[in-house]
Amino acid sequence: MRVVVITKHGPPSVLQVQDRPEPPPPAGGQVRIGVRAAGVNFADHLARVGLYPDAPKLPAVVGYEVAGTIEAVGDGVDPARIGERVLAGTRFGGYAEIVNANADDTIALPPSMSFEEGAAIPVNYATAWAALHGYGSLQPGERVLVHAAAGGVGIAAIQLAKAAGAVVHGTASPGKHAQLEALGIDRAIDYRRKDWWKDLPPYDLVLDGLGGTSVWRSFALLRPGGRLAAYGLSSLQQGEKRSLLRAAPQALAMLRGFSLITQMEQSKTVIGLNMLRLWDDRGTLGPWITPLAEALSSGIAAPIVHAAIPFANAPEAHRILAARENVGKVVLVP
């Protein structure tokens, strides 16, 4: 089978298509998926440049999410699922034509949704749901700030938060504001404007996938009782290659830590969210992917695919993410 391999740390050109043996038959509780599309995440980009400690040892096939058709099932899985169109979380290995996944990490793909759209669901929408509802305890009428609102998690958060009755603001470059407004965002904020945060109201919940110095600003923007859900470190990496000189100031800012005394005095909460760690601890992505079934069937979850790129052009997919060009999800197709 064909796979996309990160051959070594470096620019997008280190991604190569290779032939590898097919995976073994699915074990008990697993399904075999013929992959039609695989989601590309910023974590994959960080793994490629060597800034993602949870990444497998290189050379490696990464990829956390796919959409495709179940081709075989292991013991304990209903054989009637063979032929079912599904989206799935994959514990790496998603950049491949075939992958085995835990049956509990799959949900049916609605008939109206393409495989490319399906591959945009598992990581982004599970992360947004966990930040907003699983741990953020979002209530109707609350005010939410979403950083990087035009990215995959950002768009998922806008849709889920608006459906929950929240007022949603989001940061993005000006060229993406019109698309965010079309999604129903209440206020699009130009983060490139000097002191952009100074005229903002306090927030009940802030979703911060940037990390670095951004988390301190996000914390300051909370009102008493507010929650900060920090789930990413995209500020550590700019451009296509790793630069420790650029990453160091952002990383050091996060090493300072949050004072529990300050949190108590101001009645604010900081939530660290690592979906991979939760996945490993529970043994399944189910607690965060299963609640999405209703959002999918109702049309609340409506992923936007920025680009569907063939395996052979995988470096272009990573280049788009590194350049922050995308509005929505970038996926790979075999």
Automatic annotation (TrEMBL):
Against Gene3D superfamilies, the record matches this protein to: Medium-chain alcohol dehydrogenases, catalytic domain (3.90.180.10), NAD(P)-binding Rossmann-like Domain (3.40.50.720)
Under the heading InterPro entries, the entry gives: ADH-like_N, ER, GroES-like_sf, NAD(P)-bd_dom_sf, Quin_OxRdtase/zeta-crystal_CS, SV-ATPase_mito-regulator
> What is a GO molecular function of this protein?
zinc ion binding
Q: Which UniProt keywords apply?
A: Oxidoreductase
Q: Which SUPFAM superfamilies match?
A: GroES-like, NAD(P)-binding Rossmann-fold domains
Q: Which PANTHER family match?
A: SYNAPTIC VESICLE MEMBRANE PROTEIN VAT-1 HOMOLOG, SYNAPTIC VESICLE MEMBRANE PROTEIN VAT-1 HOMOLOG-LIKE
* Name the UniProt record assigns to this protein: Oxidoreductase
Q: Which organism is it from?
A: Mycolicibacter minnesotensis
